[in-house]
Structure prediction request, 596 residues.
Amino acid sequence: MSPRTLIPPDSTVVKAVDLVKDYGAFRAVDGLNFELKAGGVMGFLGPNGAGKSTTLRMLVDLIRPSRGELFLFGLNYRSHRQQILARIGCLIEKPDFYKYLSALQNLELLARASGVKEPRLRSLELMDFVGLNGRENDKVSSFSHGMRQRLGLAQCLLHDPDLVVLDEPGTGLDPQGLIDMREMILNLNREQGKTILLSSHHLSEVEAVATDLVVVDRGRCVVQGSAKALLSQSERQIRITVGRATEALTLLNAGPWAGGGRLNDRGELTMALGREEVPAAVQFLTQNGFEVYAIESRQKLEDYYMNLLNHHQTER
Amino acid sequence: MWWIALRNESVKILAKPRSYLGFLAITLLVGVILLALALDGKSYIEFVTSSLQQSLTVEGSMLNGYLVGFIVLQMLVVHLPLLVALVTGDLVSGEAAMGTLRNLLTRPLSRKGLLLSKYGAAAVYTLVLLLWLGIMAVLVSPWIFGVGDLAVLSNEGLQILPSEEVLPRFLQAFVVAFAALYTVACLSVTLSCFADNSIGPIVGTMATIMVFTLIGTLDVALFDQVRPFLFTTHMAAWRSLFLDPVPWGDILFSMVLLGAHWVLLIGIGLWTFERKDILT
Prediction:
């Protein structure tokens, strides 16, 4: 591979300015603005139909914006398509390969198309990295979804890109597969210095790796910032495992914490409380005959994300 | 990079089982024709030349390898467009349907370069398929039936070409047949740029050939102006190379027109592919 200029830390790798994509009368992306700095792992979040996949496809030039500007490494696709793509690796949606070719043949073919000098060597190296050694000569048609997902990660690293764009890399993976994928993403970022843009509905996985977050809804950016800063701004959630949770919620809503509690989808009582309020809340519940089994204090991305989207959608 | 892309396309065509259907079909069809002519060739020749038998006396047998080769070519050049379209119509849309087009288009090579490599691979495939037909028609047939002068029926009547002139004419005929078949390949690759499934471009190519052939054969004054410019009118131009004298002016016009079709179809393909949103 040809030597490349290293990206200075904190330089902007991706900059989207008023990005718009229309499909006929339908506007999929509506004036999206965001920036991704070098060296980070950006969690790119949003509900189904928010415009995430369309944005990611624009980032790798699979679709062209209707309006707006997109800069990658300070360049745009109109004048520097090949230079940009030489520095991006991507796994968009599901990993698709030529089923009639072996895993190694697939990687070699893509490595050649990426301008890799020693395609076979690089392909074998990456099959080892993603844990597929020993399966090089097996046809892709015999691979499980998880194995294809790993091969998908390998194909996007063939040309040693600076920016790795991953769209739902955890889809269909079993728990061990998810852990392995997380470890590989962390390795790519921390050990190999790659900038990562990760779109996923597995919020716990995003939370485990993301340094920055962008949340989009209906084609617009709802929030962007460092994951740490955004989560620290959010209210601390106290999850209380209590007997007769629905009755407990009714009681709390009628009392001093009206509107502060809700039941999550597992039927547990969650409340937005300050740390100093926790003993009083527990005392209030026990005095009223409720048995408190567990108290967990947390600042989870899932809660932050759900609150943010509920708030945003109510506003609209 | 274009050569690398062409190599990749060739690797894919070689590995795809569908690519061998054409070779299998040609082998079977030629085999059937050769067997039928070996068993009952004399009756066939008598039937074809029945109108000439009162004015013509033939010494020896007209049935030889060159005549069989000529018959094979006539019969199979009709079927070859389908066999070509089966593979070339899949080159872009098949990848779109499989999702592999995403992988290719996010590599650092231009969309133009990638599509041109597909047109290049279509040319190689068409050429190899035609060569296989050539081997079956011009090498296997004479091996079974022997060689001799070639008797060809034309509008002028029966023409006899001396055996030493036949092989060069076959070679030239293959060049003209390639030009016609590559037009079919270009059409199917271009249609493939508009579709996200494999079947559409193949059906589209065959439908275009059928409609153009119909326009070409209907004796309607309205179509007279259009007919010379339809590529289907020139699909059988290779046959003119077996006439005496060879109508070189007509053949040159056919070649120029077919070449113009290549340029037009490839141009439309490039324009479309460059602007195509990849949504699969």
